[in-house]
Design a protein that fits this description.
By secondary structure, the protein is an alpha+beta fold. It has one domain (3-99): Gamma-glutamyl cyclotransferase-like (Hypothetical upf0131 protein ytfp, Roll), CATH 3.10.490.10. It has helices spanning 3-9, 53-63, 104-114, 119-126, and strands at residues 14-28, 34-50, 70-78, 84-92. The strands form two sheets. The chain has a two-stranded antiparallel sheet with strand order 1-2. A two-stranded antiparallel ribbon has the order 3-4. A hairpin with a 5-residue loop joins β3 and β4 (84-92).
Length: 133
């Protein structure tokens, strides 16, 4: 979600646009990092990235896939053009609720505003600012 992080992790990746994942909600887990968890009444917005197989390996490293911190999943996401595409996401194996790491949510909210995610969703994300560790 945070473009400057992606620039370091996957320098050849590019933003394809905003996407919406239906049936999930945003959560900060006990490690202080983001994940999404199933919730049929919610939706999560984020950035869809064009990435290479090398980018996937880099993301696996940064997300701690080998250590069991995150798992890859393929999900259908909605695009503003009313199309649906398959997207790779990372799901934290620890889904217990926690407090965000310092500055973590500020960066996410800044990116959400930069890419003009829906205002109601930005307000939802901003609730986590008051719990910033």
């Amino acid at each position: 979600m945070i473009p400057n992080q992606m620039a370091v992790r996957c320098p050849n990746a590019s933003v394809a646009g905003v996407a919406c994942l239906q049936g999930y909600t945003f959560r900060i887990n006990s490690r202080g990092v983001a994940t999404v968890i199933p919730d049929e009444t919610k939706r999560v917005y984020g950035l869809l990235w064009d990435i290479t197989p090398q980018d996937v390996l880099a993301l696996d490293h940064y997300e701690g896939v080998r250590a069991g911190l995150y798992e890859r999943a393929t999900v259908a996401v909605d695009l503003p053009s009313d199309h649906q595409v398959e997207a790779l996401i990372y799901l934290a194996t620890d889904q217990s609720i926690g407090l965000p790491r310092p500055q973590y949510m500020e960066d996410i909210v800044v990116a959400a505003k930069q890419y003009e995610l829906p205002q109601a969703y930005i307000r939802e994300l901003a609730i986590w600012l008051s719990t910033d560790g």
